[in-house]
Amino acid sequence: MMSSHTRIHDALTRVQTEQDSVDAKRDAIDRFINRVGDCSPVPNPAPATGATATVGPVSQRSQGTTDQCGVVRQAFVETIQPHSLDDVDHQESLHETIRAELSQSIAVALAPTTKATFSPELKQIVLTKSYVRRAAAENLRRALGREASELADARDIVDDITEWIATADETPLTQLSFEELRARHETLARYRSQCVEIEGRRQEFLDGATSHGETVGVSHSKLVEYAYQDFPVDRPVLATITRLDETCGECQRIVRQHIVRRV
Q1: Is 177 contained in some domain?
Q2: b/e for 200-222, b at 16 or more Cβ within 10 A?
Q3: Domain for residue 18, yes or no?
Q4: What pLDDT was estimated at residue 176?
Q5: Which of the listed residues 136, 161, 189 is the one where a domain comes to its end?
Q6: 213 and 246 belong to one structural domain
Q7: Which domain covers residue 59, as residue numbers?
Q8: Tell me, what's the pLDDT at 1?
Q9: How many domains does the chain have?
């Protein structure tokens, strides 16, 4: 007999936790964007060419000039970095985190050893990449929302079936009439069909992706692989449904034996 608490319930709890984490990171990116937007860039003394156009003209800052690159680094430390390190299992430098979240060129441009000016070009590049990261977080949030909805639907069906089985088990089969036995057998058959339908829908979902606008789609198979990486099973829905189908099949077999005896 299956427990009323299944892997699907655990998976839903995990996804809800992930949703909260992504929401927090998305909000952190918003705060970073606002703080970068408030930073005044240093006007270019002359048109930049070549590679310097990417990070702004390299120069020694005059004494008394605000280190806006330092301000941006600090803004990153106080907003995005704590959420970026959630998934890192080793010590990571600020440069490495900025590189992972924004890009190598931005990490180099903002590094204190580079001494690049916080030019209008650099400011725009930082903002543009930050908007891309925010869009990616928003798309991940949508994918997690779809996964949560899938899990909730499967949970409700599993709960209904397991509750029915638990209630049915309270009445010994010997006390049921032939018609009642046949009705129970048909009900179990219907539940097994539902299990097959859920498995089909689940596989179709895993083969798909969530996309929005020009943002790179979030593969559902990769999503669940990441979300359930430390679970006892890597496919909690399919594992639960397979076990439930087997339970219904075993119940059917026992009911069928009683039907045969009555005949």
Answers
A1: yes
A2: eebeebbeebbeeeebeebbbee
A3: no
A4: 93
A5: 136
A6: yes
A7: 25-136
A8: 58
A9: 2
What's at 219, amino acid-wise?
S
Q: Is the pTM of this model over 0.70?
A: yes
pLDDT of the residue at 190: 97
38 lies in the same domain as 118: yes
Judgement on whether residues 143 and 255 belong to the same structural domain of the protein: yes
* Shared-domain flag, residues 130 and 144: no
Last residue within a domain, chosen from 107, 136, 165: 136
pLDDT at residue 216, as a whole number: 75
Predicted confidence at residue 212, as pLDDT, reads 77
What are the structure tokens assigned to 84, written together? 């970026």
- In terms of domains, do 125 and 143 share one? no
Consecutive 10-residue runs of the chain (263 residues): their mean pLDDT? 82 96 96 96 64 44 62 96 72 92 95 89 96 94 96 96 95 94 97 96 95 82 93 93 96 95 78
> Tokens at residue 96, please?
């490495």
